[in-house]
Design a protein that fits this description.
31% of the residues lie in helices and 36% in strands. The protein is α+β, with helices and mostly antiparallel strands and 78 residues long. It has one domain (2-65): 2-Layer Sandwich (Alpha-Beta Plaits), CATH 3.30.70.920. The chain has a four-stranded antiparallel β-sheet, covered by helices on one side. A hairpin with a 6-residue loop joins strand 2 and strand 3 (38-44). It is globular and about 40 Å long.
Amino acid sequence: MGISFILVNCDMGHELETISKLKELCDEVQGTYDVFDFICKLRYDDMDSFEKTPQKIRRIEKITHTNTIYTIPEQSSS
């Protein structure tokens, strides 16, 4: 199983509606006080199933930017 993190920005003032949409797609979502508005955690079994979720996230209205971080399963502490 792989884990990735997606850093997300949205239009100012649309954080609450955006986080509710992100929660429908991601395993965990947290708001942040930094360069990005949210960090989303995704668990996936293979790349084919994973690739669909970032595409869906980018299509959410008011999302302006995403940055995806893929982890290395062999270097995981869990």
